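Quick log. Single chain, no ligands specified.
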Amino acid sequence: MADTNEPAKRKLTPRDVLRTAFRHRVLFALGTSLFAIVALFAIPSLSFFEKEYTGTAKFERHQEPTLNERNSSFEGFKSVLMHELAGRDAVRQVIRQDLELDRGLPRQVDGELTPRGQQQLQAMVEEFGKKTRVQWDVRTDQVDLVSVSFTHENPKLAEEVPNRLVTNYINRVSEEIVNRLKRSCDFLRERVDEVETRLAEAIRKRIEFEKENAGALPESPGGLEERTREIASDIDTLRLQHKIAKQKLERLKAMAEKTKAEPDEPVQVVRGPNPELARLKEELETREQELQGYKDTLQDYRIVHRMTDEHPKVQALKAKIASAEEKVAEIEKEIEETDEEVVTQRIFSTQQDREDLAVALAAAESECEMAEREIERLQNRLQTYEKHLAQYAPIREEWLRVTKRQEELGNEKDSWEQRLRDVEMSLTAEVAKRRNRLEQVQLAEKQHRPSSPTVPFLLAFALLGGLAFGVALVFLSNLTDRSVWTPHDAERQFGVPVCGTIGEIVPPQKRLWRAFRVPTEMTVLLLLMIAIGVGCLNVVLWLQYPDQYAQWTAAPLAYLGERTAELWAQIGSGP
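-> predicted structure:
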């Protein structure tokens, strides 16, 4: 069973922590300061904090805004820019060809690298690749700004490597873009020539097909039927013209034979309308109008005036009608007996007329022959059209196939030619640096100050490390300390209750120490602060002023004296 008289354990409070820290404040301050001083002076000699320099080069890809085309040549390089710019091959070229950093690697007799040398070269390439960083500062369709950074212990390499990478990339990409466009031009020209050859062959086949099926290639079968009807109508017209020409030829032949047999007879008798017949017809029309007037008057007498046939006027009018009818009958009989045509002129032939008749006879014979040949030609063509009309479907199908093939090849040729023109324009603009203009806008400069480690980082490392070291010392000291400082410590240490406390009895030696304690602590603190300041100066000179750091390490007191004198001189010559 637990002892009820044992004092309960008291929990550790923040006040106890502060009291403990205050008790060991000197140890904490000394530990923190000493660690910081040692760290600040030892950092330059530690390999863990080796200085690294970073050089940055920037290049720009600019496209002229006047070009409306979208530049696809450089778009392909964007996707592999990291590999092309800082990949294994690019880094290997810089190491071996540009900077010749592989000179000291083991080589065989023939000058080639040994397996160990190849391993070292590969390790160097991997190391350089890891220390190279590519970043897009600007990324648009018209402008791309890319920065290339390289970090290395050697400041000269930090300057040269990014510049070499950017220069090699610009030269390689510009050349590759031009070569790609040239290869595209060559390919497109081959395609255009090939399509032209096939198009010429298609045109030749179409011409041959049109020759074989001349006149049988309408847009529809109704066209063939229309042509067939037109030719049939032309044949009928020609046949009529041939008949008339033949009649004319027979008449001319008869005239020629009559002229030859009876020279005194007229060669031509011109007949015309009989004027007597015209006069009789005019008189007949007058008599008929007169007879009709008599009949109208008789009708008027009978209906309007109600006259009978015995009326003298009616009987007189009937006598006139009978007389007029007889006269009309006589005139009609004369018209029937009168000829419609009479001879109006008789033409007798002369020597010139006989010559003209011979010429007309020859012309009539030629006209008859031409009409016969044209009729024969149209009949043959009509038969061809009828044959084509009967075979319209297969000819039409073949015609459509031939024309469609020619049209497709023509469109394909136009497409290839348009693409060729576009690529040729791009190539011309690329060669003239108007399409893609790759140029370095910032070269990596000579590196004087390291990029890593930085002064704030090292100061923070010394401060935090010193604090941690001081806390560790206080913890260890408190853990091994058996001193009794409070009544509670006494109760816990001896296990008996505390009835009262007696004030501290200070001997004379301790009083003397306490009298000089504060000035001593202040002096020690000041010395530690000076030492820490000198340590910070050591770090700053090591990182940012290598030349002055060499002077400092060679003669610290002389360097401090010079810097102090310069400082006082600046203060003395103030405003």
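The longest strand covers residues 53-62.
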